[in-house]
Amino acid sequence: MRVILYVATLLYSISAVAQVKKLTAESSIQNVTIFSSGARVERSSAVNIQAGRTEISFTGLSNQLEQQTVQLKADANITMLSIQSNKDYLGARKIDQEEKNLIELSNSAKDRYDQDAKLLDVYKNEESMLIKNQVIGGQAGVKASELKESLDLQRQRLTEVYGKEQEIQKRLITDQHEFDRTRLQLDEISKKRDSVNYIVYVLVESKETRMVNFQLSYNIKDAGWYPTYDVHLDDITKPLNVLMNANVFQRSGETWKNISLMLSTGSPNNNATPSPLQPWMINYYDPSISLRGQTINGTVSGRITDDKNQPIQGATVSVKGDHNATVSNENGFFKLLNISNGQIIVVTNVGYEAKEMVARSGYYTISLNTSTMALSDVVVTGLGSQELAGSLAGMAINGSNSKQKRESIQTVSVITQIQPTTTVFKIDDKYTLETDGKTTTIGIKEFDVPSLYDYYSAPKIDPSVFLTAKIVNWQDYDFQSGEVSLYFEGTYLGKTYLDLAATADTISLSLGKDNGIKIFRKLVKEYSSRKFIGSNRTETKDYEISVRNSKHAPVTLHIVDQYPVSTNKEISVDDVRAPDAKADKETGILNWVISAQPGQERKLGFGYSVKYPRDRMVVLE
After folding, report:
1. Spatial distance between the Cα atoms of 244 and 522, rounded to a whole number of angstroms
2. In this structure, are residues 471 and 484 in contact, taking their beta carbons and an 8 Å threshold?
3. 389 pLDDT exceeds 70?
4. Cβ neighbours, 10 Å, residue 36
5. In the CATH hierarchy, which top-level class contains the domain 281-377?
6. Of 117, 142, 410, 570, which alpha carbon lies 20 to 30 A from 125's?
7. 351, 375 in Cβ contact below 8 A?
8. Would you kindly state where each structural domain of the chain is located, as residue ranges?
9. Cβ distance 86 to 92 under 8 Å?
10. Collapsed DSSP state (helix, strand, coil) of residue 143
């Protein structure tokens, strides 16, 4: 008897220990580290754990949770036996039933609309027959009493028909409203399906009953930040004043309430401005290849926003009539390579008005206006920039009230941590970020940057002169690649891009065009010729570049041009003449650095000769 009692007691004890208790943990977000794309969320929770095994459910987690990134820490000596994450399928089943009910309502509204539309056709046909049936009694005529009776009957029936038609038309409007309402609600259901939350299940074992503090962390996808800058310059004898802004957004399905933020840098975007010269490779003319396709010019890059200055992700940027295309990333940035002057750049995104532009290498900020047409009728095309605003009607360019924006932004207290591959900005202030995708702008740093100023122009591409600031030892300022709003002497100039993807110790930052310096490039015809000698022809080109300084101070200018480089042994480029220019023989790029006094005009000249077989054609324009 004692043996039986002992075995029973032992089995009961083993069963009690083996039984898994289940708890639901309430957790709150404490810290978020936001990357250029994505974020890492850290939650904390205090759970009363009993001795034995316990399955803890952390509910209400982001629908953007990446399952392989889930980690759990505890401040107690407990054993974690397993951890897994699943979608909240109970919530998904509720959505399925709600969607099914809405589909039934939508189908019922559509059936009623179709039935009423057919009934309206019936009354319309009767109305037509009553109106056409005006001949009474034939040639013999009718008596007055019969005519009165017939007219009374027709008037009575037409009145009834008109009343029925009006009643049906009202029902059609109601049916259409009901159908539209259910379709819109179905769209919302689709969003809910995408926002089904995750649950993390953790199985732990503890030797004692105690309160345990857990830290749950995981990565989410649809969030990020990107830097922008406000750069002010009052005088080229003074440093640049730079305000660095962090633009933060998230659509994680969670509200980040009163949390600490850390901003971690990702891979910088690689865009450039102003227009660079590319090597000019010449070969025989092939009429089967478009001349435009042989004059590859460079890169078009920039950022696409809506009319509220929010980035547009997924907008298609393409070359009209070509396969060259790209899409804007989560911060609205894009980059198109191998763009020729004269090509048409097109931006498309559902829900926005159409825009187009003639391509020119450089960086552009494009603001797309929301379309007022129905979604089924929308075709969105186009691209625009501050510099092309005068030639593109209806183009909205961001930045008109950027000055007021800067004055309203105050920098926050930030601790900068330099890590092996990234930089982390730890913000002391607490923030609340809703899960709506709207951008929150935080001024994180303001500083003065000593710079060297000069002017740059590539008159073959663009006769404009750009003021540039060369920043030495830029690594000391924790710069990141980003869009720059430029101000000179209190006037907003436009936007450019701070590109750190391929820089050395010096950054060259374009500060916009300066109309106080004029540059003209022309072919000197009297020194240019075409000669035929034997089986060859020789073309000689001479160019003159005129520079006039209309400013009240002396300036230093960096001017670039080029001569062609042969890719065929039967074509030779000889007699290159470029006094005072530094020439790169591999690329054919010519560089001049000159000084111009106030009111002074300087002239630069260069030329070259190209020899090739007279029965072939080479394009030298």
Report:
1. 42
2. no
3. no
4. 21
5. mainly beta
6. 142
7. yes
8. 20-27+47-88+199-216, 91-194, 281-377, 518-613
9. no
10. coil
**Whether the domain at 281-377 and the domain at 518-613 fall into the same CATH topology:** yes
Q: What beta strand segments (E) does 251-355 contain?
A: 256-264, 281-282, 296-306, 316-319, 325-327, 333-340, 344-348
Strand order in the sheet with 21-25: 21-25, 52-61, 198-206, 79-87
Q: Which pLDDT score, from 0 to 100, does residue 78 have?
A: 86
Q: How many CB atoms lie within 10 A of CB 300?
A: 28
Instruction: List CB contacts of 608: < 8 A, sequence separation 6 or more.
Output: 540, 541, 563, 564, 573, 574, 575, 576, 577
pLDDT in tens, 404-449: 344 444 567 777 777 666 788 888 888 888 877 788 888 888 888 8
Domain 518-613 in CATH 2.60.40: yes
The fraction of the chain above a pLDDT of 70, given in percent, is 77
Per-residue pLDDT band at 503 (split at 50, 70, 90): low
Q: How far is CA 356 from the centre of its chain?
A: 17
Distance (Å, whole) CA 289 – CA 291: 6
Interior angle at CA 600, CA 599 and CA 603, nearest 5: 145
From CA 313, how far away is CA 24, in angstroms rounded? 37
Q: What is the pLDDT of residue 267?
A: 38
Report the C-alpha dihedral over residues 597, 598, 601, 605, rounded to 10 degrees. 40
